[in-house]
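pinging the channel bc i need a second pair of eyes. not urgent but kinda urgent?? the chain im working w is below, pasted from the shared doc
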Amino acid sequence: MTESGSRRSRSFLLPATGTVGGRQTTYRDPVLEKADDRIIRETGIDARIAAIVEPVIVGMGFRLVRVRLSGQNGLTLQVMAERPDGTITVEDCEELSRAISPALDVDDPVDGAYHLEVSSPGIDRPMVRRSDFSDWQGHVVKLETAILVDGRKRFKGKIAVVSEDGFTLERDQMSYGDEPTVDIPFDAVADARLILTDDLIRDALKKDKAARKARKKGGKAQEAPAGDSDNED
């Protein structure tokens, strides 16, 4: 699905798992939101764009995952977002795109025309919050650190243990002298992404199904009081 405009074209992408249709407003606890703030943030022009779009996204009941401006097919501005339960629909992406576009037009951080892509983070998602690591504990991640950790900056392995300050990674491959695990602090992580595996696909499907069921149940619970009010004496 693509929309075109004078300044930009827009597309809306979803993960292969599929999600629930329909729009539902989600209450966001500001205390919890602050505690689950992103540990990996943009720099340069991406940071300027994120500062513009994130308040809009949060105000609509979603959370920002990542902003990235690239030179692919001209200029492409990719905005990844999701609901607090980790899902997002085509309709959600459309609403977000329509809300983000005016904000970008006002501040105009990008010179020239560009393609705006609003999407989900996908199954092999970027890991940008502490909760991402706990949510996907037991799965394989590829990451890069900003500083040397145990003599290196690049790692690949399974998330074994997650704490408040960091996590323990079971190495995928070991060089001579390496320990089987390495402790990585959150404040050292510069970039991280899940690696697509059969186990990840299976668990992503389960999480998506559970989120659909919970949202459907929550919607029915909200409708019940309105129906009961007609029976008051």
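so The longest strand covers residues 152-162. and Strands lie at 2-4, 8-13, 63-70, 76-82, 114-119, 140-149, 152-162, 166-171, 181-185, 189-194. — does that match what u expected or am i reading it wrong
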